[in-house]
Design goal:
The complex is a heterodimer of chains A (540) and B (341). In chain A, 35% of the residues lie in helices and 21% in strands. Chain A is of the alpha+beta class. In chain A, a hairpin with a 3-residue loop joins β8 and β9. In chain A, α11 packs antiparallel against α13 and α16 packs antiparallel against α17. In chain B, α7 crosses α12. At the A-B interface, α1, α2, β10, α8 and α14 of A face α2, α3, α5, α7 and α8 of B. Chain A: One of its GO terms (biological process) is peptide transport.
Chain lengths: 540, 341
Amino acid sequence: MKKVAISIFLMSLVILGVIASGCIGGETTSTVQSSKETPSSTETESQVSNVVIYGYESEMITLDPSIEFSNSIIMLANLYECLVKYTDKGLEPWLATSWEHNENGTEWVFHLRKGVKFHSGNEMTAKDVKWSIERTIRMGMGPAFIWDPIESIEIIDDYTVKFKLKYPANLPLIASSAYGAYIMDSAFLSKIGDDKAITEYLNQGHDAGTGPYAIVKYDPKTEVVFKKFDEYWGGWEKDQFDTAIIKIVPDPALREQMVTSGEVHIAKNLPLDDIPQLQQNPNIVLHEEPSFRVLYGMLNTKKEPLNNKLVRKALSYAVPYKDIVDYVLGGHGYIAKGPIPKGIMGYFEDLPTYTYDIEKAKQLLTEAGYPNGGFKLLLTYTQGDEAEGKVAEVLKAEWQKLGIEVEIRPMNWEQQWALARSDPQNAQDILLFYWWPTYPTPYDYLFNMFHCENETLFNLCYYCNPEFDNLIDQAVVLEASNPQKAEQLYKQAIELLIDDAPAIFFYSPNYIYAVHKSIKGFKAYPAYPEVVFFYELRKI
Amino acid sequence: MARKFGEYIAYRVVLAIFVILGVITVVFFVSRIIPSDPAALWVGAHPTKEAIEKAREELHLNEPVIKQYFYYLSSLLHGDLGVSIRTHNPVTQDLKSAFTATFELILVSEFIAIIIGIILGVYSAVKKDSWLDNLSRILAISGVSLPTFWFGMILQLIFFKYLEILPLAGRVDSVVILEHPLRTITGFYLLDSLITGNFVVFVDALKHIILPAITLAMYPIGLITRQVRSMMIEVLQENYIRTAWAYGIPPKKIYFKYALKNAIAPALITVGLSFAYTLIGAFLVELIFNWPGLGRYAAYSILSMDYPAILGVTIIAAIAYVFINLIVDLIQVYLDPRIEL
């Protein structure tokens, strides 16, 4: 039986290898706990109050500003800065202090802020602006297309840079983009190597920006840690945070627990059903912030029966818009007025839109030759999106009243998109999805979703109306030089769109942030979705 | 014996290679045949046509699936599991950190399960049909049948919310690790902090691991308790035990030294197999406790059809299964000479 003893011993040795010590530690835990009031704990206390933690739902992707086209801007916008910032007051100076353009908007001159330091200590000059934008264009990754209008970039002097454009464009708006418009430290990065080497270097957990924070620890699956940059041009006040952390917490219920207990200070995307309860919680303050997202139901305009405008109009009337906002969003959002959300050019309060009117819908269906419905529609939405799922259910119930049967099919986004991009005759009839802009121009919405396409990309209603295309193509070049005229053209285009009804415009949701009571100064900018600007936060 | 032993291991390893190759082949083709567009995932939310086309080329998506399969195999031979389509990180690197996190959790929970399982098993056999036996039976049955996620949340509620003695989730407190940076040697926080003498992090990591480890241990505790109990009841009726009593040997010594030795062998097999179970159980536990391990990684990879990552996780899990089975078989042979290789 010696063998047994030996193998028990070996077996436990394997396991003990790691934890044998754990047992000893287990006993000491209690002693450490009881003697928590030691000097070291007061030291910890003082440091803890200087850290702000943002609990975020998904992993970080990349730290390279030329590539990033996803959720990692929540890091980049704290590490880097753009030339211009898009706020609720419009375009405001950021790294550029002012800008001007020639008459038709094909030449732009930006005057840069003086005395701005990169984290390396280098000064930010026109050379960095040119280098950063040219690198993004050269690499041609994710967001590079925003710079399409650029013909050339000239350095006039250290603090002045001139852009020559191929066609008129609203360059300051482009320069305020949350994606692909961050200014990088050219002197420092060009020493690292070629574009690819720079990407690799950055993704190891480095940054080369002018932002108020610098990265100190990058663990994209768990947490990212930022330390304040002492020489930030904006200066520092005593009640700002020395350290900021983005903590990855995918489970919404867990994020809720953490923010109510103060383990994290800011959390977003909490379970909607819990919001009323959270409003009563004395530990947190709820911030409701508008977003630039809109939920659309793209109707298949190439396939029976939705190729009939009357049927599309009937469906648009048969949507209980208000009930959806109340039931799906719990009232945290508003009914969409056309395709463009509030806060962006092209949103019109007085736009004639569809309202819930089931009689009118029946009448239109009869007119179209479907007096009692009698057809079946396939609706797809992105699996796991609770809100889209609820909207789908409401539509199914509502359209049943018209004699229309709806088959709901949740799919993961890539699959859903692949189906939508296949032959429209075999694709879905209705597709639910959100759109939000790369930078806040109405053209981003209207062009991507409703401009004619030879090969389907995001025009998932397969809509094609040359008159509409003509109007928005004219409007976009006038955005900067003649905004009134541009707005008028956009309005015409949108009215045309609403009459053709290639899509149902449901709602624009608000983002709800739960902020712990120990933090003030929180503000969200819809142009920089989900970003928490740590620099603006203050201790209480 | 030794030669036979070596031959047997070699045979098993060759067999394992075929098993793993089979798993890779099946998972590769299944994940590539499902209609989805990896290029769309690769380029982010609002790409241009050019970007998607470029991604197609980079990912070799324009080439026949069979060719892609051989690309994958050849890079696999170089130890390269490809690049995750969702995170753009090398899968090997992702898996390494995720695997150590999961493995640390599994080891601690198995340790807890073995200690508690054996003690409970022995005493409920000794005090058969007493209140202790009944209690441990209830514990064992609930351990096997209670849903892990529910039990984990109850523990969080009790120890975090009401008693406020243990942390809610995560591997280590962000602020603690920031003030006491941990040098990575093995990737196991408990071990690394101990080696480097970083006791603050050690205590903190230990506090973090207790709840998820107990949650994960519930199932193996049930298994081991029942197994040890039934073997012990049998062994306690043997003649040599009666002899031991007659010699007046203290009961504790009889139970744990003489009886347990003979009862433990089958229980050890259970322990080995429960390792494999905990690897799966970790999937749910990791989500509840925000443990940055394999389970969480696998769940998100599957949801987004990130096939290099899915394959990576599958390979790791397959290797772990094969390896654990091999060890279990070997231990069995070692303990019981009557079993032929």
